[in-house]
Amino acid sequence: MSRPSGSKMNTSIFSELVHEDRVHRSIYTDPAIFEREMTHVFGAVWVYLAHESQIPHNDDFVTARLGLRPLIVLRDAEGRIRALFNRCTHRGARICRQASGSARTFQCPYHGWTYFNTGRLRGVPWPEGYACDFKDAKFNLAQMPRVESYRGFVFGTLNADAPDLAAYLGGIKKPIDEWLDRHPGGKVCVREANRFKFRGNWKLAYDNAADGYHVVFSHRSLLEMENRGKAEQDKGMSFYLGKPDEGPMYVQAFAHGHHFKDKRPSVEKRAGALWELEAAHPGMEHYEELIKARLKEKAGRALDLAASETVNINVFPNLSLLGNHIQVIQPLAVDETDTTWYATAVVDEGDELGGALDAVNALRMRTQEAFPNFGEVDDAANFEEIQKGLAACEDEWVYMHRGLGIPGRVRKEADGSLRAPATDEVFMREHMKEWKRLMTSTPNLGVLR
Amino acid sequence: MIDEAFYLKVVESFSSWPEREAGDPAIREQCRMLLEREARLLDQRRFEEWLGLYAAECVYWVPATPGAGDPRREVAVAFDDRRRLEDRIFRLRTGSAWSQTPPSRTVRLVSNVEVFENLMVRSTFFVQEFRAGETRLWSGWCGYRLKNWKIEVKQVNLIDCDQALRNPSLIF
User: Fold this and answer.
1) CATH class, range A47-153
2) pTM (whole model) above 0.90
3) Does residue B136 sit within a domain?
4) The CATH classification of domain A171-435, taken from the options 3.90.380.10, 3.40.50.2000, 3.40.190.10, 3.90.1510.10
5) Smallest CA–CA separation between A198 and chain B, in Å?
6) For residue B164, what are the contacts with CB-CB under 8 A and spacing of at least 6?
7) Structural domain contains residue B64
8) Would you list which residues of chain B are within 8 Å, Cβ to Cβ, of chain A?
9) If exposure means fewest CB atoms within 10 Å of the residue's CB, which of A111, A171, A249, A250 is most exposed?
């Protein structure tokens, strides 16, 4: 009865499209492949939906998407987090047209069918005109059968056969834990976002997410800007200069397509060192002075919290923790993608920062605007140029073989992850392997009512 | 240098607008000339001269939410002090700011100039952009706080500021 779209595709093509060293251009350009991804990837694995701080109270909601499916992610009246399909059971209209808010019920603006925020149908206008029993669950809103959180990050899947979320995350949990645990109370909250759209396939953004090879080229202008007027280039991403593979930073690829680019080994371990790496930001002198006056020798940690963390933590297929951002990749069409860079603020319920919280966050908002303004725009321009370049249909291959075949370059860790120098493309090879596995599998997708 | 007091004053200046203009035609004419000159300098990519229209201590603010919010507590599309504006211009001049290589051609209309007490000014704008084979339109309204005929604060309110923006590497 329910047939996932794209399921009729002959899956033997995927062994032609994904090789160890290269992928075929069509995985970025073919609408039929994109359509299949919306079920076989975005339906089948745990997809990031929202952050709990966006729905702090019961009845709070945000709208989101699972692949192309419109969702309302909410905390119901009892506090349970659900992901309802934002689609009236009656005629299919989106019932909620606000980006966020608070509501115990949702009424479809078209014919007035009303639903509780548990998804259950509350009622329809003039029910005497119907012969059916509206208590039948088939009239409730469809919702994702499995929604789980990991330390504030809300994920969902339609796949009954998927492992639980913790198992899906596997080795990437450790970098996520470390990213959170540098903050007071081990948590952050979302504070608005820098939002981008580009005319290109969503995988171009995910391929880039742990790419240490592009930095000094794609972001040359940012590196020059951060170090303008200085004798020595030592600000921002300056640790990429020279030969980045010879430095201590590295890239690590985990099971399920997750990966981690860890630049922390390139930064001194002492408190305050991360802050000293920051280039100029509005208000930095004032707030630095204020924080130092208040916290004295303890100021280093507070200032480091205002500085961009030097990690890229990527959870396949759509979540990246980049610096202090929660970046979400949203596919819209085979050649159209949004990336949302949610800013995060420090939450300090236990006053670990001795009253410096507001000053830290005032700085942290400005440090988080820098990369979207002066870095992401150039990546997005390059993604669009890839999409244009891929129109050359006789030129079939896109390469990802940096590091492949060089003895000793890629190391297998005790946990089964693969570790390589920072510019290695092993992480792409690994997520493409996973992508191929998913595209040739038969996920057990369904909704709950 | 931006400090807490500067932030507070910025938030306060743009929190509400009077219903009626101050009504002095000579001052209004001077404001119109300033805004139209700014538009021309930006269209001609004369960024250094453009920055010359700004006060020594200044802010160029493109909020990411309608209603603008408090920039100390949320990120903006852009929140630049003078030094970051110099950074922005420096980057655009490097030749490797790929989002502006080749640069956008722009033409902008500035209209509905309203001048209030204390040299608070509002205008509406369209920026027509041509880049990489496509033309597109940006639109919104601006709030200005002027002092001694220099721009102390410019707030650019894009009508789609809370939506995904494609290549927002222009100076609006």
Assistant:
1) mainly beta
2) yes
3) yes
4) 3.90.380.10
5) 6
6) A195, A196, A197, A338, A339, A340
7) yes
8) 1-4, 6-7, 59, 64-65, 69, 71-81, 83-84, 87-88, 90-91, 94-99, 132, 162-169
9) A111
